[in-house]
Amino acid sequence: MKELSRLAFIIVCIFCCIICSAQQKYTVANAHSHNDYLNDKPFQLAFENGFGSIEADVFPVNGTLLVAHHKKDTQSQRSLKNLYIDPLLRSFDAGGKRKLSLLIDIKESYEQSLGLLVKELEPLKKYLSTTGRPNFLTIIISGARPSPGEYKNYPDYIFFDCDLKLSHKPDEWNRVVLVSLPFNKISAWDGKNNLKSKDKMALAHIIDSVHSAGKPIRFWAAPDTKTSWKWQMRLGADFIGTDKIISLANFLRKENKKQQK
Questions:
Q1: Model pTM?
Q2: In whole angstroms, what is the distance from residue 172 CA to residue 145 CA?
Q3: Which single residue of 57, 119, 238, 248 could bond 242 by disulfide (Cβ 3.0 to 4.6 Å)?
């Protein structure tokens, strides 16, 4: 009897989470371009397709932030400035202003990288969100980053991603604008067939907990399939990550049309 009651409770919880999350309206602004610099048109393809979040990995090399997944692959012409900051500045200055988060995944030496980033962002400062004042561009630091106690040492237009491994004081938590967690550490699902009930429950609990703390959530290392995108949406993930920019953009446009009917 106890097992039946427990099972019924779990089913009800899952059902409630799915119904609640279904109220969220998804558009291409909920799309996150994972390792964006690896596609044929870094920044441009995701930006032109309306993605709300774009990710770039960086290394500090000879006084410049270079974009690459591995340091051995860095090239002087593929800098954060050339691939992202300058195109953003041109677009915003030309009137192409819209909301965007730029997730900068620091791969090495956050002290040096953040010092360089502050200098490189100078031309974009008038477009940057600051604490309590949203603007067109929100800068989010992921990867190698300072401890929460050090956040105050950086300009208020520098925000942080969180993996929930460290505790935060209230003022430190205010500098966190996104929670990013590894999907494959929660579920071994391959994105095919249906998601198991225990995985739905685990994911729904995590998403609900993050939302209760007042933050949006995305998963990395999630299956990059339509079935996975659908389940992430049903469960209420705020950003859907992908390496398939065109496919996800088209999928979300179709889903948005369905939601409007």
A1: 0.90
A2: 13
A3: 248
